[in-house]
């Protein structure tokens, strides 16, 4: 009965098998007297290796990371794990954007609901989304959490990192966003929405709706 599943697991890499086993044990999937729960849980366990993230190229060096290269796709969408369902707890997912020379990435968040209280730090036990022009933290961009209206974020460099992180309590739906790579000239001629302040090129800014 489970031949297909066993074949799937066999053809996976060892670390994926370990992830699946962890999930099976976690949610009691191995209990033979609860077949319905077991089936649902098994489906969940098998999709969890790609976190239900359907776009980008999965980066194998991280538990959850997806790469978007402008030389493959100049625009598209990306979302939090398991979107539009609730995102999993204690999960960190990276979204790496790689433009070509002179390119920048422009992100537009259509939906945003990440459990937490600004400034979305550990002190407030917040889940959050972080933006950075580097692998390290970039103080230029505030962390985002809570329920937000649509907003835009611009990179300063050809590389940009978006990181989603959830803690071990309380859940929400997450986010859904689109991205587009633009060369510097296109970016500079675009009207950047401001909040009445002095939002400059590359700064995270909210749209007035
Ligand atoms: Ca949480």
UniProtKB/TrEMBL annotation:
Entries under Gene3D superfamilies matching the protein: Spermadhesin, CUB domain
Origin superkingdom: Eukaryota
Record's keyword terms, sorted: Disulfide bond
PROSITE patterns for this protein: CUB
Gene Ontology CC terms, in alphabetical order: plasma membrane
InterPro entries from the UniProt entry: CUB_dom, Non-NMDA_GluR_Accessory, Sperma_CUB_dom_sf
Leader peptide range in chain numbering: none
Keyword Cytoplasm assigned: no
Pfam families assigned to the protein according to its UniProt record, in alphabetical order: CUB (PF00431)
Domain CUB: start-end pairs: 64-182
Name of protein: Suppressor of lurcher protein
Organism: Ooceraea biroi (Clonal raider ant)
């Amino acid at each position: 009965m489970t031949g297909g599943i066993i074949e799937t697991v066999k053809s996976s890499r060892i670390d994926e098998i370990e992830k699946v086993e962890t999930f099976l044990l976690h949610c009691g999937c191995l209990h033979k007297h609860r077949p319905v729960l077991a089936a649902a849980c098994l489906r969940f366990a098998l999709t969890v290796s790609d976190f239900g993230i359907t776009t980008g190229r999965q980066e194998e060096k991280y538990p959850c990371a997806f790469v978007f290269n402008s030389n493959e796709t100049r625009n598209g969408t990306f979302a939090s794990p398991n979107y539009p369902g609730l995102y999993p707890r204690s999960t960190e997912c990276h979204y790496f954007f790689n433009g070509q020379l002179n390119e920048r990435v422009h992100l537009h968040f259509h939906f945003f609901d990440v459990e937490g209280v600004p400034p979305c730090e550990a002190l407030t036990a917040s889940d959050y989304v972080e933006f950075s022009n580097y692998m390290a933290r970039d103080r230029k961009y505030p962390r985002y959490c809570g329920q937000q209206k649509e907003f835009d974020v611009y990179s300063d460099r050809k590389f940009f990192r978006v990181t989603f992180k959830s803690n071990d309590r309380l859940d929400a739906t997450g986010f859904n966003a689109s991205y587009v790579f633009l060369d510097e000239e296109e970016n500079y001629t675009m009207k950047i929405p401001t909040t009445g302040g002095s939002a400059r090129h590359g700064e995270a800014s909210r749209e007035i709706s």
